[in-house]
Amino acid sequence: MHALIVLAHPNSSSLSHSVAAGIAKGISAFDAANTFEIADLTEEGFDPRFSEADIAAHRRTADAPADVVAEQARIDRADALVLVYPVYWWSMPGLMKGWIDRVFANGWAYDDTSGSKVVKKLSHLRVHLIGIGGADAGTYERHGYFSAMKTQIDHGIFDYCGAHVVTSELLLDSDAGGACKHVEVAYRIGRGISNVRDHSATGSAA
User: Fold this and answer.
1) Which residues contact 78 (CB under 8 A, 6 or more apart)?
2) How many domains in the chain?
3) CB 41 within 8 A of CB 11
4) Both ends of the chain: CA-CA distance in Å?
5) How far is CA 193 from CA 14, 72, 151, 173, 204, in A?
6) What predicted TM-score, i.e. pTM, was given to this entire model?
7) pLDDT tens, residue by residue, 18-77
8) What CATH number is associated with residue 83?
9) What is the residue range of 93's domain?
10) What helix, strand, coil percent values describe the chain, rounded to 5?
């Protein structure tokens, strides 16, 4: 089993980085056949801007830009895609959203030909979403942020492409000193990812 862990946080000493490392450790802990790659979008300098070249690729009038093709190839090599991100304004950071905007392109993630039904092309992919929030669960519950984030990310992005969201987890109260607990949870998530053999398994949802 090979996992691609995609991370979007500007500070290399952030809790998001520690959580990503914890997941990676859990994935590889007891089986050398389980491997992972961490794609740190900040460190790698990924350009999240949706350009004219991306529009042309979307319209199928040109090939996708080389950096997009490289990211798609990384996902193609993976059995599981893990996204780790801090919650900014009740969603993922712009860097990660831009990565999705560009990489999950028409013709690769889905096939949208005018006048025909959208074809979902990522039904083989298992997705694990790990958001890290500073607010507490009560805040998310009172304002409907749990369901709003699931609608826009789990359903709006990944279900549209046919990918199976196995884990959808929010690690909350991070501003209240829960970092150690979150890293422990991350390790357990990694163990769970390494043990999932098909998309019928379920992850914890927050």
Assistant:
1) 2, 3, 4, 37, 125
2) 1
3) no
4) 25
5) 22, 21, 23, 24, 12
6) 0.91
7) 999 999 999 999 888 999 999 999 999 999 999 999 999 999 999 999 999 999 999 999
8) 3.40.50.360
9) 2-195
10) 45, 20, 35
